[in-house]
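Bug report (template v2)

What were you trying to do?
Predict the complex of my protein with 2-acetamido-2-deoxy-beta-D-glucopyranose.

What happened?
Run completed; filing so the output is reviewed.

Input:
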Amino acid sequence: MHGLFFVLVACTAGTSAFRLQQIKSTGKDHTVFFKHYYELHGEPVVLKCPSPRYKHLDFSALTPNITWYKNGSKTMISGKDEDPRIWAKGDALLFFPAMLEDSGVYICTRRNSSYCAEVAIHLTVVEKRAAREIAYLQILFTFTSGKIVCPELWDFTPNRTSLELKWYKDALPLEDDNEKFIILKGSTSLIMTSVLPTDAGYYTCKMSFPFEGAMYEVTRTIQLETIITPIIVYPTQKTTSAALGSKMTLPCKVFVGLSSHVHTDVEWLANDTIVDVVYKQSRVTEGERQEIVENGENFIEVPLIFDSVEEVDFYTDFTCLAQNRYGYQFDCLFGIIVIIIRICKNNVKQC
Ligand SMILES: *[C@@H]1O[C@H](CO)[C@@H](O)[C@H](O)[C@H]1NC(C)=O
Ligand SMILES: *[C@@H]1O[C@H](CO)[C@@H](O)[C@H](O)[C@H]1NC(C)=O
Ligand SMILES: *[C@@H]1O[C@H](CO)[C@@H](O)[C@H](O)[C@H]1NC(C)=O
Ligand SMILES: *[C@@H]1O[C@H](CO)[C@@H](O)[C@H](O)[C@H]1NC(C)=O
Ligand SMILES: *[C@@H]1O[C@H](CO)[C@@H](O)[C@H](O)[C@H]1NC(C)=O
């Protein structure tokens, strides 16, 4: 288990631009949730009445009795025969297509004879030229492969095998035969074989959706941010030597490029356990973290300090671990790099 290891986990699936939050809970069986949909004028929209699982009750059993209103309007939105553009079906409210004036709050009510759950759903419809203002943020690490996901399509494509998307970067179509991008039929992902800092920007995915003789288009805009995976610049060797009883400091220096220092954690482990836990802040300690700027680029340095090297240290793996996190909302997205160091007794060539 010696040497330089590289692990990268990036999961961006379904990063989305809306929040689901419980805003009100009045009484025992009355729940209001808020969900915000952002959509483009002229495109089909499906609002789903979520099934709030309130306490131990499963309101999904109330599906047949769902009613929809637009807040401020007294009339219930009914079936397709009443209005061929906006109608309710099952647990969904459909707009074919949505228009700017449809923006507002829609309230769906699920009920049976004893329970009632109300859900308020925000819909904001914007002009096509404002698509970037409602873009979904996604983040990828540079210098490795990654994928962008075209979000929130499944209401239109129950049949995944027939899914076909067109992808654009800053309005220019991306070619599938390009070595940089892989577009798989039946997938909502755009795979990038190697992400570069210059790949940041706006991506658009488009899906054609035929419905009752008319052809609609579903467009999603993604704002891609790229961040660097931290690089351990020091130590470069996986061994170092020390004499028994000597003092020693092992600095670990990490390059984070233009990324802010705050996104990167650097720590030392002894046999995979945090140093301060193993040595209880006594003989071996982690020194103070330093945030360094050199030529406009950011580094972090954390030293491992031995008051006195002991025999057991020659048999312990010391690991410097640098980990990138990008905000709590992306806690499944992080890049990790580690280097594992072995200490050798002075004058011992091989260890
Ligand atoms: C109404 O729905 C609630 C929640 O699912 C359920 O516990 C209850 O039995 C239902 N009542 C009737 C009369 O169906
Ligand atoms: C519904 O509309 C009324 C009057 O405009 C407003 O006071 C209320 O906050 C709205 N409800 C929701 C859930 O947005
Ligand atoms: C729907 O509502 C009606 C009357 O409000 C009620 O009789 C019926 O049981 C409900 N259906 C379901 C499946 O809860
Ligand atoms: C899905 O679409 C494919 C291609 O259009 C078609 O061959 C297949 O029968 C469809 N499957 C279902 C379950 O509709
Ligand atoms: C680390 O593991 C090695 C091998 O299992 C063991 O000899 C050594 O004592 C351990 N070091 C510490 C600090 O526990």
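What did the reviewer find?
Confidence is low (pLDDT under 50) at residues 1-31, 327-333. The chain has three domains: 4-128, 135-227, 231-345.
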